[in-house]
Design brief:
Elements: E1 9-11, H1 22-34, E2 44-47, E3 53-54, E4 60-61, H2 70-80, E5 84-90, H3 117-126, E6 131-135, E7 142-143, E8 146-147, H4 149-163, E9 170-173, E10 202-203
Length: 206
Amino acid sequence: MACAYSTLGFSTWNWRQTCTTRAMLEPLVDAMVSRGLVAAGYNMFMADCAGPSRAPNGSITLPEAQWPGGVQSWNAFLHSKGMRAGFYTDYGVHGCCACSWQTNPGPTHSFGDAGHIQQDMSQLAAWKTDYVKVDSCQPVAWRDGLPDDPGQYGRFRDAIGAAAKIRPMAYSIIGFKGNPKAMAPPADGGGPFSWQNRTGNSWRTT
């Protein structure tokens, strides 16, 4: 996949590794602007673990109390600061992050895109999202006893490509959990260089 811009910036996972709210993050955005980081090119803001839920019609929703105006309003705020907006999700039915305000079914109520990939990517593009980070906490497809990361992430690649007619989005792959081949050196026939560089714009290497 081609990406016309840099994805340098900030991910809240490196700060909190847990659920985030708009009130927590707005001061960080303002600090990045005031300290010159955005002007220097560090303009991507990845709000990990925002705690989305799925509405009855299947669409992505964020709680008004924690995220006033939802994803679309948050993205508009970032754009007004000269930044690009990232969204975190998982390729399974559920993901890694479970927030107290989430209402998804299941033991952790966490959010994933399984069964809604094209719907979600098109919705995020319509909300002017710039970057989609897809985790691999809950595999739903398997090959040779291991999570079928190439297959599952390929479906996201195709969905993001189809949504590009609405808005192009960069695609980040976080694929390694439960699959030792996903982190194997290239010489071993596995690892990110065996397929991830043909599927996404960036991928996890540690």
